[in-house]
Amino acid sequence: MLFLNWITDLFVGTGVAHTIFTLALVIFGGLLLSRVRIGTVSLGVTWILFVGILAGQLGCTIDPATASFIKEFGLILFVFSLGMELGPGFFSSFRKGGVTLNLLSALLVLLACLVTLVIHWATGENLLSLIGVMSGAVTNTPGMGAAQQTLLDTAGAQEPTIAQGYAVAYPLGVIGVILCLMLLRKVLHIDFRKEDEILQRANSDMAETLEAATLEVANEAVCGKTLNEIQRHFGRQCVITRILHRASGDVELAGADTTLGLGDKLFLVATPEELSAMELLIGHRIETMDRGAWDAMKTNHLVAQKCVITNPSINGKRLGDMKLRQTFDVTITRIRRAGVELIATPGLLLQVGDTVTVVGDKERVDKLQPILGNSIKQLNEPNLIPYFLGIVLGVALGMLPIVVPGIPVPVKLGLAGGPLIVAILISTFGPKLKMVTYISTSANHMVRMIGLSLFLAAVGITAGEGFIGTIVHGGYWWVLYGFLITVVPCLIVGIVARSVFHISYYSICGMLTGGMTDPPAMAYAQSVCDNNQVPVAYSTVYPLTMFLRILTAQLIILFLCV
């Protein structure tokens, strides 16, 4: 008897233990199935959603209020960790193609509304039910919640078919986006090798790629001038680290007061464009003297050594304000941040987690290391302050009522849109406010996956309860309608993006999954594409799309249903 009670409490109970057990079991089963591949296709963590639906249908339910909390909190963790990772490159990606991506995602929203209205006019289906179907078809929980709240505020009543339509359409909404990505890959004849080449060329054009080279002074106009005078008069953005003087044969650490002489050899780091300009200004390049040749020179005991900035007091400081040349007689030649090399200009803000290359006397470089920190162990310590501060600000922003002229009820960004925007802002501008925003990639990925897993499990269990019964009693038409609302806009926008704007398949995947506010489909697309272009495009269009999804659901209620 005790054994039966134990089993009952775990599987069909109502307590905390039952809730945790059910969620963990669903996530465990989904993660096991995520390893299953059919040919080259795998649904990845999306399996958690379908295992949750099965569990809900079998009676493994959890308290609705608890399920709502877990779903929203998991989604917040997912979108916030995503924003923290992609924030530093968000604004640059928006400038370089982001406007086009956002216009296409807006078209995606408009087409979904249009398909919904066409179905209503053609079939006579209740428009309130179709709004729920539309929210499920585009996997947008805040849109469904906004529609329910707007109906309550304006008509003083609730409509249960909104939530039912959402639950029925949601699973095929996820599957439909994934199927569209697969179909577009076939229709557009996507070759991943060619896409990788296009992406590599685009990254080389967009990124500030640095080169190291040796130049020999051949222009008599610069002879006798200091590096400071050359920088001031010609405004070249490069870092000259070492000079081999022709007259004495000595290697000197370059400084602002270093004077150039005819035949001197300079070792410098610059972008390709700046390097070409320096060749015209200084003299020709010497291909035989690379970094290894300079490092082999023992004169003045100069070394080039990498250090990691882990000292929080340096976070947000300008490189020029450190006065390293005057204090330590060393020079920072390049900075590596999040996999990207940056030129060490005086105005560059240093951040915790940056890897800097320091050139100077070995003894002086060793003295500088404790100032910078250079403690890998310290980087492994999780920095949770920006996470929870960001969630506080993100939730506040998400619940902030935004008054739109002509609409009687304020709209809100919701508990997904607000934290995502705040995460992008904190990770981008936090160092300028002396805020340490660094968190290791593995820690950030762990938070993201935990959040996504909780979100999918809660949505699946909630949607699974009575799922088959709803479909049998007429809901099968909602499944079809939802599938059309998902697939038709995705295919049209995907083909337009490729044929008209020549956007890469990776960006199309990110734009479509972000435009459909579909984290599971984004996780699938990222696993298939295996690069950061998908989440970058996803985060670029997600904030605007989230706002438009919420707004359009409320507008249909206000103008066509009330």
Describe the structure in brief.
The protein is built from 22 helices and 8 strands. The chain is of the alpha+beta class. The protein has 2 domains: 2-203 and 382-561, Na+/H+ antiporter like fold, CATH 1.20.1530; 209-379, Regulator of K+ conductance, C-terminal domain (Alpha-Beta Plaits).
The CATH class of the largest domain turns out to be Mainly Alpha
Separation, N- and C-terminal Cα atoms? 55 Å
Please state roughly what percent of the residues sit in beta strands, choosing from under 5%, 5-15%, 15-25%, 25-35%, 35-45% or over 45%: 5-15%
Structural class, by secondary structure, is alpha+beta
The fold-level CATH name of the largest domain is Na+/H+ antiporter like fold
Mean pLDDT: 78
Could you list the spans in which at least 5 consecutive residues all have pLDDT below 50? none
Strand order of the largest sheet: 1-4-2-3
CATH architecture of the largest domain: Up-down Bundle
Mind summarizing the main beta sheet? Answer: 4 strands, antiparallel
